[in-house]
Specification:
about 250 residues; alpha/beta; Rossmann fold; 8 helices; 10 strands
Length: about 250
């Protein structure tokens, strides 16, 4: 693993009214690493990732990206830094086909009359899905007709087409069947192989042991545990999530 973090978040604090959601969080993410970010409901996981993705601006703290101090004021700035997020609700357009979802807002156009080049768009979509090993009936299939795992795979593939350096995934295997979970976990492994740094938020703890290199545990707005996956067991991870580990390692 590279010794220089791709992302270093230092002493991140943020409050909403009287509620202190993050109480001085230090988080590092390395190139080509899958980091599991876990914690009980209200621990601060989603808030921390919304800071990284530009949805929230912290009250204090700093972020260093590839060795350079940065400030992320909004999601557009995060995208310019090649930080992409796949949220739990996916934000797909159900009535559009797969290719249209993959290239929504950046469709290839014919050079002369500036209309969408649908043939090229579907060819590019198939190429991208094949590269990632995503199996769907057709790039012409409406997203609303896909299974949950296929929809999740399309959402991940769309984020990957932006060539991210950091990909945040919020509960990507929630409410999926066994076969569909396997499809999504395999896709995460393929994304990692391309050098993308992945942050995985999930309550399916068994998934962490399938794909993660390291796990960071948040508890009441602070990191209380941070270890390589090989240093965790399911029992020790549950103990951390429930607050029985009081200090990050």
């Amino acid at each position: 693993m590279n010794d220089i973090p791709r992302i270093a978040m230092k002493d991140i604090k943020i409050s909403f009214g009287s509620i202190q959601s993050l109480r001085g969080v230090n988080l590092e993410l390395y190139p080509g690493e899958v980091l599991g970010l876990v914690g009980d409901n209200g621990a601060g996981k989603s808030t921390l990732m919304k800071v990284l993705s530009g949805v929230h601006v912290p009250d204090s703290g700093s972020i260093v990206f590839e060795g350079n101090p940065i400030t992320i004021h909004n999601p557009l700035e995060a995208k310019k830094l090649q930080i992409e997020t796949v949220f739990q609700d996916l934000a797909l357009c159900d009535t559009l086909d797969v290719a249209s979802n993959l290239f929504l807002g950046r469709e290839p156009v014919h050079f002369f009359h500036r209309l969408i080049d649908k043939k090229k768009m579907h060819a590019l979509a198939k190429e991208e899905l094949d590269r990632l090993g995503v199996v769907i009936p057709s790039t012409y299939s409406a997203v609303e007709n896909l299974s949950g795992g296929q929809r999740q795979s399309v959402a991940i593939a769309r984020a990957v087409t932006y060539q991210p350096k950091v990909l945040i995934m919020d509960e990507p295997t929630a409410a999926l069947g066994v076969k569909e979970v396997r499809m999504v976990l395999n896709l995460i492994k393929k994304v990692k192989e391309t050098g993308v740094s992945v942050i995985l938020i999930t309550h399916r703890l068994q998934d962490l042991f399938e794909v993660c290199d390291r796990i960071t545990v948040l508890y009441e707005g602070k990191i209380i545990d941070n270890r390589l996956i090989k240093d965790f067991t399911m029992d020790s991870l549950i103990n951390s999530i429930t607050g029985e580990v009081k200090e990050a390692k």
